[in-house]
Amino acid sequence: MKNNWKCATLLLVSTLAMNACKDDDEVIPPGPVNEEELITAVHLFLTPTGGGDTAEFSFTDPDGSGGVGPTYDWDTLQSGTTFIGWVKVYNGTSEITPEVINEGTAHQFFYDVISGGLQWTGYSDVDSNGDPIGVTTTWATQSTSGELGITLIHQPNKDAPGVAGGDIANAGGETDVSVGIPYVID
Ligand SMILES: [Ca+2]
Predict the structure, then answer these.
(1) How many CB atoms lie within 10 A of CB 148?
(2) Taking the model in full, what pTM does it have?
(3) pLDDT at 35 (0 to 100)
(4) What pLDDT shows up at residue 34?
(5) pLDDT above 50: residue 11
(6) Distance between CA atoms of 183 and 142, rounded to whole angstroms?
(7) Within the chain, where are the H helices?
């Protein structure tokens, strides 16, 4: 009987330990500031500066790179228009843009018009050092549809030539996410 109790207790403890381990696996620990972000979705919103509907462009890949392919949603922009842009990034259903902003000196978004007549015209936010983060931006359209690229770099060298102006060439660091999303200009 005593042994059975011991076994039962051991089993209970083991079960609790297993559950505890399982819970630990499911919780994403609050990493140090230099932790890379896991990003499974990127949304870019563009609102005409003169007013009008906000266009939304998104990339979603819930299982990360590999596995099931990503999905894209894109929108139509009016030609000859200027826009305020802002980006949101998610890990699953959790928006992690606030973490990116909180760790602003360790992050910078870069925007690359891969093709077409959309123009990225600048950053409109700064980190605590006065360097851009790139969560908010400005844009303009000419007349051709194409594809835009969005890259989030972790620990870029923001002092390197061109980086604060949006040139990724000398940024270094690690890539948190890099996606291309189609757009239509009407
Ligand atoms: Ca995937």
Answers:
(1) 24
(2) 0.80
(3) 61
(4) 52
(5) no
(6) 12
(7) 2-26, 97-102
CA 150 – CA 86 distance, rounded (Å): 11
- Per domain, the residue ranges of the chain are 1-30, 41-185
CA torsion angle 40 170 124 70 (round to 10): -20
Nearest to 97 by CA among 39, 170, 142: 39
pLDDT of amino acid 19: 42
**Residue 36 is which amino acid?**
E
59 CA from centroid of ligand 1 (Å): 11
DSSP string, 81-127: -EEEEEEEEEETTEE-HHHHHHTGGGEEEEEEEEESSEEEEEE----
Does the pLDDT value for residue 51 go beyond 80?
Answer: yes
181 C-alpha to center of ligand 1: Å? 15
If we measure between CA atoms, which residue out of 155, 147, 154, 159 comes closest to residue 177? 154
Distance (angstroms) between ligand 1 centre and the Cα of 61 equals 5
CA–centroid distance, 66 to ligand 1, in Å, is: 4
More confident residue, 72 or 27: 72
User: Ligand 1 centre and the CA of 89: distance in Å?
Assistant: 16
3 pLDDT exceeds 80?
no
